[in-house]
Amino acid sequence: xxxxxxxxxxxxxxxxxxxxxxxxxxxxxxxxxxxxxxxxxxxxxxxxxxxxxxxxxxxxxxxxxxxxxxxxxxxxxxxxxxxxxxxxxxxxxxxxxxxxxxxxxxxxxxxxxxxxxxxxxxxxxxxxxxxxxxxxxxxxxxxxxxxxxxxxxxxxxxxxxxxxxxxxxxxxxxxxxxxxxxxxxxxxxxxxxxxxxxxxxxxxxxxxxxxxxxxxxxxxxxxxxxxxxxxxxxxxxxx
Length: 239
What we know:
- There is one protein chain.
- This protein has helices at about 55-60, 65-70, 75-85, 95-110, 125-130, 140-145, 160-180, 185-195, 210-225, 230-235, and strands at about 5-10, 25-30, 35-45, 90, 120-125.
- α4 links the parallel β4 and β5 (about 120-125).
- By secondary structure, the chain is of the alpha/beta class.
- It has 2 domains: about 5-180, Ribonuclease H-like superfamily/Ribonuclease H (Nucleotidyltransferase, domain 5, 2-Layer Sandwich), CATH 3.30.420.10; about 205-235, no CATH class.
């Protein structure tokens, strides 16, 4: 897997990109082969309008702070953001929101929207709803589920949220990569060779001892914690 992935988040003045709200913070963390690189992009942006108190209460960003930072307007950094995103798989929690704002800002500059930059979108909110139907799937809830430390998160900042989402995404998709994806690898060839060994018609059954049973119970307890209830394996064992 050599896909360039970017964990992405934004902060804005409000919820409605087509009704005057603007982007005020952008963060992207690059990941290649499930490893974070040093190629990150974090920018504060002056929205060229006021900052509603309810928005500042969420992300902690005020117009005064942006002016102290000499934050540029989006027109000054839009091309840099577009170039950074081009051709990548974007990992976003509630992608419709962030993509809506980026497309609006790009459109104001005459730049192409996200889908014309050759990007693909992976929405971790949709993933979580499919994995955990009927359960809370906010970023906070997923951090709790996967034991991701969010103690440093005072506000919903784009950069800290990207860092948390990166850990959550890796936890959510870890099972997909535990198996060897590269059938040409040395390890995969060894597994294939073992699979072709002829087994005897009858195999000796060895029962688990107390230590092994205890370890198994501990593993099931961990699964229970991860899913917030009785895991599937425990349910089947008791059936």
